[in-house]
Amino acid sequence: MPQMNRQIQLASRPTGEPGHANFRLVETPLPEIGDGQVLVRNHFLSLDPYMRGRMNDGKSYAVPQALDTVMGGGTVGEVVATRSPAFAVGDKVVGMGGWQEYARVDAGLAGMLRKVDTRHIPLSAYLGAVGMPGVTAWYGLVKLIAPKAGETVVVSAASGAVGSAVGQLAKARGARAVGIAGGADKCAYVVDELGFDACIDYKAQASLGALSAALKDACPAGVDGLFENVGGVCLDAVMLRANAFSRVAMCGMISGYNGQPIPMAAPQLILVNRMKFEGFIVSEHMDCWPEALAELGGGVASGKLKYRETVAQGLENAPEAFLGLLKGRNFGKQLVQLL
Amino acid sequence: MPQMNRQIQLASRPTGEPGHANFRLVETPLPEIGDGQVLVRNHFLSLDPYMRGRMNDGKSYAVPQALDTVMGGGTVGEVVATRSPAFAVGDKVVGMGGWQEYARVDAGLAGMLRKVDTRHIPLSAYLGAVGMPGVTAWYGLVKLIAPKAGETVVVSAASGAVGSAVGQLAKARGARAVGIAGGADKCAYVVDELGFDACIDYKAQASLGALSAALKDACPAGVDGLFENVGGVCLDAVMLRANAFSRVAMCGMISGYNGQPIPMAAPQLILVNRMKFEGFIVSEHMDCWPEALAELGGGVASGKLKYRETVAQGLENAPEAFLGLLKGRNFGKQLVQLL
Questions:
Q1: Percent of chain B scored above 90 by pLDDT?
Q2: Tens-place pLDDT, residues B158-173
């Protein structure tokens, strides 16, 4: 085992768009473990849009990431040292190890570390389809949108870790699934590989009106449910196609993460169409995780629930991969493999 | 009984702000009644903001008002001729008689006409606190906001027929009630007569920031529920004070009724604060009316639920009163007494 750990810290807070200068790669001594603790070698680090919000100091749902400390984040890895009776060396685990190669974990605290079974599900999937993004998709779709067979569900960022699961879960419930994604390749994947009924390339639409017209073609019976990951024009366009009593699960608004205004053009449609909007954070609904993970894990193990990963290699490439994620350069779940 | 009826018809659709030219006063023959029908002499006509939406041709929740026909609207009155076993001459009734002195009603159709008891409740109250506005307040507050004791509820257009009931119903449930109204006299009434904890005069606030600051003073523990009648800056300001898991009942957006854009400035707050927004129309929730009317009627009969009326005199003054309502010139429920 090496003597040193490597980690990425938050060096400064971004003004507007973040950049490499906001991150710092540091070497720190490998932590020693005490009673009840384990040392985990992280194999994969999850990069997620919510991390952008934590880089700011302002009010948000997540506590701000502290400066000069390791960036927080979900990880999967392997126990390499243990002083906890609950974990053995070699156990595969999922936790919040952060942007670093090794993490010391208080194994006794509820929810800190969970042993996972990699016989039928790849380890990395526990950061995506069978992890937080998958449960996020499941909660918003099943609990908030609750589509009936024959209804139409639209999801933005459709090729992403959350969006790809939303559409497939909607299809499994007999709904029509329509994606919005950036680029022809992503749209082709969403329809051809994931089985959505249609996918609209928002980058190919010149205006709100054009996007709304494309949605009209893709959703001939209107929109009954929207799983919103993007906000801005995407949200405005879908609202123009919303049916009476439609439901919007507000999961993310990545279009506004750098502080630019993203007004909702026509909130009166909430009233006109008797819509229901609900913002949520999946970590506040832990009671739903077992049911969600059972469906998601079964889907991945059987091959029915498909997903795609973009894997950056090496901790030092995590900032670049994260900045790319914020620009939509990833394709599916963005991971960093820690070598 | 006279030979002629008088009614106000929709003469043309407004472009932007409506005016007198959009209405026409006509004399028509008094209708003859057939089997199962009754003739009602309308005593009071209800004027309501939703009528503005029906003057437009565009998509809204209500079917557009047809041109060259009598303006629709709620009325209370007295049966003056009957060929229905369910109604006797002299019965006091509430229905949708429209902007006219006499209305012929198919008494057998469910929901068309309801006999009311005026021993303890004034006839006109069935158009306000014990009618559609009262049930609107009740449904949005009780079913959508569902305040717990100690929570803070804000309502815009607080001195109006709906808003005044919202705050009083919230107080009865142990919540803090804060109003937003236009003018010092309305605010004084809301606090001194209706018993709200505070009321903010939005006309005295120069900017979104000033209104938000005033809300901070009036809602020291933040806002848990918003009953929205106005939209625009009022909504934006309250959203800046919203607590986690706050609920917004979207009832009206009178600030945008003439077609001007009323964007929501910061929809990301729905996500950040895990808010729930729900648009509703009270006529789609008829199952709640009995429970709501029982509480509202009891409150009015006992004098606990207070309300105020502005009463225009004579059918010919209905358009002027309606135009004034849209500008907030009324104080409490706007009625027209048909002489």
A1: 90
A2: 999 999 999 999 999 9
Q: Which of A243, A267, A283 is the last residue in one of the domains? A: A283
If asked whether residues A53 and A33 sit together in one domain, one would say yes
Interchain contact, A279 vs B270, CB within 8 Å: yes
How far apart are alpha carbons A196 and B156 in whole angstroms? 43
Interface test with B, best of A208, A246, A270 (most B CBs within 10 A): A270
Query: How far apart are the C-alpha atoms of B133 and B160, rounded to whole Å?
Result: 9
Averaged pLDDT score across all residues of chain B: 95
Kindly determine whether residue B274 and residue A280, on different chains, have CB atoms separated by under 8 Å. yes
* Count of domains for chain A: 2
Residues B119 and B169 in one domain: no
Nearest-CA residue of chain A relative to B230?
A268
Q: Do B279 and A264 touch (CB under 8 A)?
A: no
* Chain B positions in Cβ-Cβ contact with residue A56 (cut-off 8 Å): none
- Which pLDDT score, from 0 to 100, does residue A259 have? 78
Residue type for position B199: C
Statement to judge: residues A71 and A198 lie in one domain? no
Query: CB-CB: which of A61, A231, A270 is closest to B279?
Result: A270
Within-domain flag for A256: yes
With beta carbons less than 8 A apart as the criterion, state whether B33 and B83 touch: yes
String of DSSP letters for A60-125 = -SSPPPPTTSBPP--EEEEEEEE--TT--TT-EEEE---SBSEEEEETTSTTSEEE---SSS-GGG
Domain assignment of residue B302, yes or no: no
Query: Do the domain assignments include residue A298?
Result: no
Q: Which residue type occupies A13?
A: R
- Is the per-residue pLDDT at B194 higher than 70? yes
Q: Which residues from A are below 8 Å from B52, CB to CB? A: none
Q: Are residues A148 and A190 in the same domain?
A: yes
Is pLDDT above 90 for B21? Answer: yes
The CATH number of residue B333's host domain is 3.90.180.10
Chain A closest-CA separation from residue B249 CA (Å):
9
Q: Across the interface, which of A251, A264, A281 has its CB nearest the CB of B264?
A: A264
| Structure tokens, A259 | 């502080």
Residue where one domain finishes, among candidates A268, A283, A298: A283
Both structure tokens of B279: 């648009």
Mean pLDDT of B35-49: 96
Give the residue on B whose Cα is nearest the Cα of A253: B268
Q: Among A60, A273, A281, whose Cβ lies nearest the Cβ of B279? A: A273
Q: Which candidate, A74, A82, A63, A70, places its Cα nearest to that of A23?
A: A70
Average pLDDT by stretches of 10, chain A with 339 residues: 92 94 97 95 95 84 88 97 96 97 91 92 97 97 98 97 97 98 96 98 95 98 97 96 98 83 95 97 94 97 97 98 93 95
Contact B222, B241 (CB under 8 A): yes
d(CA A118, CA A125): 9
**Domain extent for A277:** 132-283
Whether the predicted model's global pTM rises above the 0.95 cut: no
- Considering only residues B254 and B52, tell me which one the structure prediction assigns the higher pLDDT: B52
| Same-domain status, A263 and A201 | yes
Say what the ipTM of the complex is: 0.91
Same domain assignment for residues A206 and A146: yes
Mean pLDDT of B190-204: 97
Task: Verify that A175 and A75 share a domain, yes or no.
Answer: no
Domain co-membership, B101 together with B155: no
Return the pLDDT at A61.
67
**B299 within a domain of the structure (yes/no):** no
> Helix (H, G, I), strand (E, B), or coil: what is residue A238?
helix
pLDDT tens digit sequence for B63-83: 899 999 999 999 999 999 999
Tell me, what's the pLDDT at A59? 65
